């Protein structure tokens, strides 16, 4: 059976030097001249699930219980599980595992509906201050945690995995303008596109 070719909703103006085909996606592992950071990585290809149920406490995607408090996150076995509200959660397979979505009405595959970008580096919060009024560094909350709200006037899910890793998910129709704006704003800190390998190296310390 022929695999359907799938496309990221954005294209960086950088030359890929290492790519890999995965589940129909051409995933860029590395770009030429990635620099020393900070970085912007495209994660639109990773598997994403939406879960909606009146009894989320009974559901354990990837064998892990969903956090009880809205805004709380759990990062385990390559999957990031985020509690959105009383009846909804999201699951992001950030290590690129070929995860098969469980059967049941609670699950919806949103992989192709959402674009995803990762900001990587020590200047993340300085860059984000230019594009959102969200408080991404609340003193009373320890990472990882989720904040929902506008970034560049676009509704987003923003997960702070740690001080060096921020992940943004939003409707794929905004992907190109979002990435261009972040790179332009981040040029003050020499923000550059990066491939998945830089992301995985950055996230490895939080796994």
Briefly summarize what is shown:
This protein is mainly β. The chain contains 3 helices and 13 strands. It has one domain: 2-Layer Sandwich (Gyrase A, domain 2), CATH 3.30.1360.
Description:
The structure is a single chain. The protein is globular. A hairpin with a 4-residue loop joins β6 (79-83) and β7 (88-92). The mean pLDDT is 91. It contains 3 helices and 13 strands. It has helices at residues 124-128, 175-186, 196-203, and strands spanning 16-22, 25-31, 39-42, 48-52, 73-76, 79-83, 88-92, 107-109, 114-120, 145-151, 154-162, 165-171, 192-194. The strands form 3 sheets. It has a 6-stranded mixed β-sheet, sandwiched between helices. Strands 5-6-7-4-8 form a 5-stranded antiparallel β-sheet, with no helix packed on it. The protein has a two-stranded antiparallel ribbon with strand order 1-2. The chain has a single domain (1-207), classed as Probable tRNA modification gtpase trme, domain 1 (Gyrase A, domain 2, 2-Layer Sandwich). The protein is 12% helix and 35% strand. It has 207 residues and is mostly beta strands.
Largest sheet: 6 strands, mixed
Query: Radius of gyration over alpha carbons?
Result: 16 Å
Find the structural class using helix and strand composition: mainly beta
Count of individual beta strands: 13
Q: Number of helical runs?
A: 3
Low-confidence stretches: none
> In angstroms, what separates the terminal alpha carbons?
35 Å
Architecture in CATH? 2-Layer Sandwich
The ordered string of helix (H) and strand (E) elements is EEEEEEEEEHEEEHEH
CATH class: Alpha Beta
Mean of the pLDDT scores? 91
In CATH, what is the homologous superfamily?
Answer: Probable tRNA modification gtpase trme, domain 1
In what range is the share of β-strand residues?
A: 35-45%
- Give the overall shape: globular
Walk across the major sheet and give the strand order: 10-11-12-9-3-13
At the fold tier of CATH, the topology name is: Gyrase A, domain 2
Domains, number: 1
Helix content: 10-25%
